[in-house]
């Protein structure tokens, strides 16, 4: 869209630019010839001829400057069109007129009842979430697994109310999250995404973002709990080291540890982890898993993972397929169903890690 807008702006100015150039050239030549003839006839002096040419050149330059300013204006408007359109677009998630409050307590339960969600651009296709029901007790740790596209991440977005359910309800301590202010809801939840959102600030500032009013001792304690101090001492400026845009100066495991430290500092009673150990080497995963188990202690946790080692010790594991929960139980209980999806996923992994297929298996797949 932005490229098309820029192209339309260029096309609209091309004829005008060409016309102005031709007109300026013709006018300059005509005035040059006219003033030269007048000089030959003795009507004007050479000084007047030079002044005429200077004024003409100045006039032409000013005209071209005005044209360039107009072109810059159009380019700026074309560049701003999409961001402004996005900012002015009506939001689909709004706070209620009379919001309810959840009483502050040490026990938070999550109830999903008949939850359904269908993306607007997929009105005629299969719903992303279909009649999903799940109860998570206070302090319970629930793992969510399933094939790619089964609706795991969509479920977390619904819980965080990045979008509203189209069917059913999600309740925290019996209160529908649609009846709560978004700010109040998200104060209850610590969210660690698959790709941590880091800013081009120092490591300390990125951790402190979880709770800006926190004391320095609290920030450093959260960093230690997330094993950030294990690598930060090796950096030239320690906690004052700038991480770069989106944390490009840190490795994947280091970024995840900073994100977990931020979640620890936030100290919210509900924890949502979305693939927090994906694409990490085994050493980084070991550090992060230790940090995650510390973080989950005493909290109601919803953990999405492809690596089954991450959720093997969860209180219960929910297996999703095509937007539904098709299996629910502990790791050992789910393995007993040898024809179930969980057993199939586990068979493709060794101790929770993806195994390398043998040459015979590759030959069978190619066949």
Furnish the topology, listing elements before pairings.
Blueprint lengths: L1 H39 L5 H43 L21 E8 L11 E8 L4 E6 L5 H8 L7 E6 L2 E2 L5 H6 L1 E4 L10 H6 L7 H10 L3 H4 L19 H15 L3 E5 L7 H15 L3 E5 L11 E6 L2 E6 L1 H6 L4 H7 L1 E2 L2 E2 L4 H8 L1
Parallel strand pairs: 3-8, 3-9, 6-7, 7-8
Antiparallel strand pairs: 1-2, 1-4, 4-5, 9-10, 11-12
Can you offer a commentary on this structure?
Helices cover 46% and strands 16% of the residues. It has 367 residues and is α/β, with parallel strands linked by helices. The chain has two domains: 2-88; 110-118 and 127-354, Rossmann fold. The chain has a six-stranded mixed beta sheet, with helices on both faces. A hairpin with a 2-residue loop joins strand 11 and strand 12. Helix 1 (2-40) runs antiparallel to helix 2 (46-88), helix 6 (216-225) packs across helix 8 and helix 8 (252-266) packs parallel to helix 9.
């Amino acid at each position: 869209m932005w490229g098309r807008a820029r192209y339309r702006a260029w096309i609209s100015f091309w004829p005008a630019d060409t016309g102005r150039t031709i007109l300026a050239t013709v006018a300059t030549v005509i005035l040059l010839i006219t003033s030269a003839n007048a000089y030959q006839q003795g009507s004007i002096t050479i000084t007047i001829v030079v002044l005429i040419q200077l004024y003409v050149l100045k006039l032409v330059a000013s005209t071209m400057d005005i044209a360039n300013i107009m072109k810059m204006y159009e380019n700026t408007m074309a560049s701003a069109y999409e961001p402004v359109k996005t900012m002015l677009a009506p939001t689909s998630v709004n706070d209620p007129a009379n919001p309810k409050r959840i009483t502050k307590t040490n026990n938070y339960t999550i109830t999903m009842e008949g939850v359904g969600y269908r993306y607007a651009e997929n009105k005629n296709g299969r719903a992303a979430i279909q009649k999903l029901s799940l109860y998570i007790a206070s302090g319970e740790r629930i793992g969510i697994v399933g094939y790619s596209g089964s609706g795991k991440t969509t479920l977390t977005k619904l819980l965080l109310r990045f979008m509203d359910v189209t069917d059913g309800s999600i309740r925290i301590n019996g209160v529908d999250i649609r009846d709560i202010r978004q700010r109040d809801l998200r104060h209850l939840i610590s969210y660690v995404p698959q790709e941590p959102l880091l800013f081009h600030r120092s490591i300390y500032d990125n951790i402190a973002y979880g709770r800006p009013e926190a004391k320095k001792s609290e920030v450093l304690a959260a960093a230690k709990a997330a094993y950030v101090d294990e690598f930060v001492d090796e950096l030239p400026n320690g906690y004052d080291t700038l991480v770069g845009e989106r944390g490009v100066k840190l490795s994947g495991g280091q970024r995840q540890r900073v994100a977990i430290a931020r979640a620890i500092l936030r100290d919210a009673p509900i924890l949502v982890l979305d693939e927090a150990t994906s694409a990490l080497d085994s050493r980084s995963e070991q550090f992060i898993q230790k940090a995650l188990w510390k973080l989950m202690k005493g909290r109601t946790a919803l953990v999405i993972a492809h690596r089954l080692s991450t959720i093997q010790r969860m209180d219960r594991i929910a297996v999703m397929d095509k937007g539904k929960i098709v299996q629910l139980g502990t790791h050992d209980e789910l393995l007993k169903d040898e024809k179930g999806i969980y057993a199939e996923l586990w068979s493709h992994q060794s101790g929770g890690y993806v195994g390398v297929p043998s040459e015979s298996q590759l030959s069978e797949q190619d066949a």
